[in-house]
């Protein structure tokens, strides 16, 4: 069964907060859900499917369905880190096509900024994690894992820190127009290179922000989508993948997007050249470069040249990306990027992005996310959407 | 290779490694590190080596696996030194063993600025908090 045309994204909402010491995580989920319902023109009673991931507090769907007072007949708590919410959109479309629900709510929220989270902290998933015994002592944080990915890419393909810096520069050009963005100053390549080295070869400005916040999406059956007074954003194709160390055949030169991307393009029946706008997960600058190559926007190893000289800046380059400022400048709620990636793609397809960054007549957009981390093991999800 | 004019201070001279997270499946690995042996997985069904070692072969899913000693030499596949947010900078890496499989580790006892991808390294066993030893690597 193809998901192409089986469901539509009818509601999207990005919580405006970037620091929420006075709110609970459940509250941020619920406020985001309410925002998406208002955006869609739906009420709580219309929701009959609920999707959340590991950022949902308590016992995930149990706690949140109960907290929000929902009555649902379908739940899905697939957790592939920050890529979860793109996968949720696809799983919601599948559930709708199978008749399991009509209107699916997806929420994300978290408070890593208030809780003092940092990408330089070693992650501990407990001794039962099968890899933990062989990794925890070595201090795999987030930043140094991506540092290894960048180091290998530079070694294999001659990619430079200047080229990576262009990704941040492009994001900052977009963020200047977003009043909610954490970092709104336009930066230069020189400023990125002059920022402190965090994990070789990544500088502070190669890293995303740490922000509190949340977001929500509503996916609905086509008949319901057409009954609402919002522009129609159709799901055309989706792909998902998990990539790890492959039993010791470690290869840091490509991400799971090399698998999830082709699946999504095949289902959508389009090619990278057809995509007018792309939301690309940006935990670090190298994350963007890897996925751009793996999705086929350029050849493997040529990402450095592709992203340089403003090629990702809307109105200027060939591939406008992350026009909200992305995780690099705008928002990275719960340390997970997939939700905001879908939301900005929906804004672009609706023609509701900021006028300074809106892609003219944007009809076909892609959202790409990875979760976990490219330096060890990660989920990847690709979603292709069309304005109907 | 950069030339050092003074005795270099190892990047992680003062860092105490956290204890590894031991479970019933990986205990034998740390029993071996106590003896100065690095174990990798091998499969008697398909003949492939794997890392990290595990009960079922990740290639053919046979249970005819055995954990065998590696030579303890290899080359740097990639590395990154974490400079910020930590009390003492340290260097994480993937090392490709001469047997052909790649493992996560730390690089220790090297001159600052001297590391290169492809460089030859050999294993050392470093004590973690609580006394369990883990394999780390140093340039040859």
Q: In words, what does this structure look like?
A:
The complex is a heterodimer of chains A (388) and B (140). Chain A is α/β, with parallel strands linked by helices. Chain A has twelve helices and eleven strands. In chain A, the strands form two sheets. Chain A has a nine-stranded mixed beta sheet, with helices on both faces. In chain A, strand 10 and strand 11 form a beta hairpin. The longest helix of chain A is centred in the first third of the chain and has 16 residues, at 25-40. Chain A is globular and about 55 Å long. The mean pLDDT of chain A is 97. Chain B is mainly β and 140 residues long. Chain B has one domain (27-139): Beta Barrel (OB fold (Dihydrolipoamide Acetyltransferase, E2P)). Helix content of chain B is 6%, strand content 36%. In chain B, strands 6-5-4-7-8 form a five-stranded antiparallel beta sheet. In chain B, strands 2-1-3 form a three-stranded antiparallel beta sheet. The longest helix of chain B has 8 residues, at 27-34. Mean pLDDT of chain B is 91; it is low at 1-10. Classes of the chains: A alpha/beta (388), B mainly beta (140).
Secondary structure layout plus pairing:
The complex is a heterodimer of chains A (388) and B (140).
Chain A: E1 8-14, H1 25-40, E2 49-51, H2 61-68, E3 74-76, H3 84-97, E4 103-110, H4 143-157, H5 161-175, H6 189-194, E5 197-199, E6 202-203, E7 213-220, H7 222-227, E8 233-243, H8 257-268, E9 277-280, H9 285-294, H10 303-307, H11 326-329, H12 338-350, E10 364-372, E11 378-387
Helix pairs in contact in A: 5-9, 8-9
Chain B: H1 27-34, E1 39-43, E2 49-50, E3 65-69, E4 73-82, E5 90-97, E6 102-107, E7 120-127, E8 133-139
């Amino acid at each position: 069964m193809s998901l192409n045309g089986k469901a539509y994204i009818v509601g999207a909402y990005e919580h405006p907060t970037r620091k929420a010491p006075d709110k609970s995580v459940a509250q941020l989920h619920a406020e985001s859900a309410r925002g998406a319902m208002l955006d869609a023109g739906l009420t709580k009673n219309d929701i009959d499917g609920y999707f959340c991931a590991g950022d949902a507090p308590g016992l995930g769907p149990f706690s949140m369905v109960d907290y929000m007072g929902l009555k649902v007949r379908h739940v899905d708590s697939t957790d592939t880190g920050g890529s979860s919410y793109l996968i949720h959109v696809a799983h919601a479309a599948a559930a709708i096509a199978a008749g399991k629900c009509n209107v699916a709510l997806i929420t994300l929220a978290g408070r890593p900024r208030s809780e003092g989270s940092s990408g330089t902290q070693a992650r501990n998933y407990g001794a039962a994690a099968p890899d933990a015994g062989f990794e925890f002592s070595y201090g795999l944080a987030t930043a140094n894992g991506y540092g290894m990915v960048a180091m290998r890419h530079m070694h294999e393909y001659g990619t430079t820190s200047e080229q990576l810096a262009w990704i941040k520069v492009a994001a900052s050009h977009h963020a200047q127009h977003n009043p909610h963005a954490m970092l709104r100053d336009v930066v230069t390549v020189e400023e990125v290179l002059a920022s402190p080295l965090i994990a070789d070869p990544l500088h502070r400005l190669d890293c995303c922000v740490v922000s509190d916040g949340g977001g929500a999406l509503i996916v609905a059956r086509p008949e319901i989508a057409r009954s609402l007074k919002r522009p129609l954003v159709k799901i055309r194709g989706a792909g998902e993948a998990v990539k790890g160390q492959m039993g010791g055949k470690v290869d840091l030169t490509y991400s799971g997007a090399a698998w999830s991307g082709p699946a999504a393009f095949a289902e959508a029946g389009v090619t990278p050249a057809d995509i007018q706008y792309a939301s690309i997960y940006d935990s670090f600058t190298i994350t963007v470069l890897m996925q751009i190559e793996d999705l086929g926007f350029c050849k493997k190893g040529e990402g450095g040249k592709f992203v340089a000289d403003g090629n990702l800046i809307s109105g200027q380059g060939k591939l406008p990306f992350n026009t909200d400022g992305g995780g690099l400048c705008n928002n990275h709620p719960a340390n997970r990027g997939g939700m905001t990636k879908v939301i900005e793609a929906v804004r672009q397809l609706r023609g509701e992005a900021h006028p300074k960054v809106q892609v003219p007549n944007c009809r076909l957009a892609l959202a790409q996310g990875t979760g976990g981390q490219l330096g060890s093991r990660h989920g990847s999800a690709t979603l292709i959407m069309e304005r109907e | 290779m950069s030339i050092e004019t003074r005795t270099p201070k190892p990047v992680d001279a003062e860092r105490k490694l956290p204890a590894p997270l031991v479970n019933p499946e990986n205990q034998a690995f740390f029993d071996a590190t106590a003896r100065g042996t690095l174990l990798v997985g091998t499969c008697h069904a398909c003949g492939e080596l794997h890392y990290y070692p595990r009960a079922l072969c990740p290639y053919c899913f046979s249970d005819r696996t055995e954990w065998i000693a590696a030579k303890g030499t290899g080359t740097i596949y990639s590395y990154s030194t974490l400079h910020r947010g930590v009390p003492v900078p340290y260097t994480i890496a993937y090392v490709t063993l001469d047997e052909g499989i790649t493992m996560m580790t730390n690089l220790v006892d090297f001159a600052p600025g001297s590391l290169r991808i492809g460089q030859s390294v050999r294993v050392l066993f470093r004590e973690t908090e609580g006394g369990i030893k883990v394999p780390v690597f140093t340039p040859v």
